[in-house]
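Hey, sorry to bother you again with one of my protein questions. There's a protein on my desk that I can't quite get my head around. No rush at all, and the record is pasted right below.
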Amino acid sequence: MILNAFGNGLCISANMGSGLWTASAVNMTHWFGWNTGFLLFIIGVINAITNQFLIKRFDGKRLVGEILYVLFFSYFVNIFTELLNNLGVPSLSIFIRAILSCLGIVFFCVAISLYQRANIVMHPNDDTTNILRFLYLKGNSTAAQLIDFIPPIIIIIIAGFAIRNVYSVNIGTLFSFFFNGILIATADKWIWPELKHNFKEQNN
């Protein structure tokens, strides 16, 4: 969770693009004036409820665990964003910030790989991709990520029309769009390869 929150905080602070769900929250922040962490929490709760429908049964432990995860996750994203802002990340050159944004994406993809494989508790959005990957897409992580990107893209487009601007969408966002699934699959093989997916065992 800490690695995931740090990666997202780094993307937000660098302001050169972030993961699409985070970018959707940032744009809604500019639209509604609400705190980004609060919006990430609301999005997470909606994801957690959606997952109950995707698994076609009620799993109270899963629902509560995911809501608690996103509660702490959104809090830590705010902390890391403020910390990195205070360290001067937003004032760095565009080139350095672009690198940091992509690095933040790598960090949270590694985190996603680790806790999707452990399958104990995870961010509800990442559980969505896990469910899509194993219940609907025959293990294809890239396809699962691409399908999961559809809602935030719609949110960003609608918010963009409403505020007549788009925030937190840049080179990092493109990097996330094209490489999230690939980075997660690569981390599955190279980062703690002994940790295997136990999705089926956990959900039968």
